[in-house]
Amino acid sequence: MDRLNVLDLFQGLATLAAAEPSILVMRLVLIALGVLLIYLGKKGVLEALLMIPMGLGMATINAAVLFVPEGGWLRAGPNQIFVDALAVADNAAQTTALMNILQINWLQPIYTFTFSNGLIACVVFLGIGVLLDVGYVMARPFQSMILALFGELGTIAVYPIAIALGLTPGQAASVAIIGGADGPMVLFTSLSLARELFVPITVVAYLYLGLTYGGYPYLIRLLIPARLRALPMPMEKPRKPITSGQKIAFSVTLCILLSLLFPVASPLILCLFLGVIIRESNLVPYMDLLGGVFLYGGTFFLGLLLGVLCEARLILDPQVLVLLLLGMLALLISGIGGIIGGYVLYFASGRKFNPVIGIAAVSCVPTTAKVAQKEVTAANPGVVVMPHALGASISGVITTAILAAIYVTVIQAVY
Q: Where does the chain cross the membrane (predicted)?
């Protein structure tokens, strides 16, 4: 019997030992980064619901890399961990092989049937819709939409920059949508326009979306002085409460109108407003299902899959470095744009509007609204801006959907 090598017994160490130096270093870095994401999620610095499964998935996959062998009819998917969702079986044996992979690799069915076709984005949007109160938008429609438009500055500005850096129009639009801070929209746009890069684009988007909770407070403190952060909002005139019937009518009208104008985005638009209508109809069993199981289950598997997809070879791709920089730039410019919008309303209102609310227009619902309220509370504990911030944030979801649909429609038609 041949002598058993220690590395044959501990195969994870064997893959590390056999890896190129750059891959070895990157795997160790990503393991450490995964552990850091778990720690920061636990401490509340980053969004724990996404970062904890993502961090553990990232650390684990780089500690134990298993992959689909290259060559043959069975195409490897992103970073060779999953079988390509478009792999086609031509005979019974190949069909059996595909079914075996779907049964043995426990994450492959989730990747194939929910992630690579965008279904998980629709599931998350259903859950988000159940949590949204469109009354915040209806109470201040013009204020909310003005801020939301300013909060799309990065979504617009990064597109020509990406084109100048050599990305195709589809790739440029997909990475520019990161500026809207809406993960499902990024997944939808990249699947429609840049399928070859949808995994790294989505990974970059969600990694940075998790970091907005920790990064945007510093941007607010840098651009808005403490005396303005502490500015109380003026008392509003008493108004009639917005009824659930009015909210349903608003949601139905907007859903049909946006679907008529932008049919390519209608699956996500439908899911978002269906969730809103279920909420306003007080369908408690559906609310519990969508707002609990669907939303948190979708977020969990989305984070876990994104972490598993963060393998060293994928991250070392030179194009991914460009995506990392562009994604960061898009969110930075959108954050600045939102604050500019806050200043515009500050001066337009006779210096009565708190400009911190502008950051909520970057539509990471409800994270950026929470960030705005947290920073205002730190400056003046008696000031409440959450209703205004939620209106801007919900409007940001709508404007991001519109811009994503415009990008997809125009680029598919022209290119």
A: 23-41, 48-68, 110-134, 146-167, 197-219, 248-277, 289-309, 321-346, 389-410
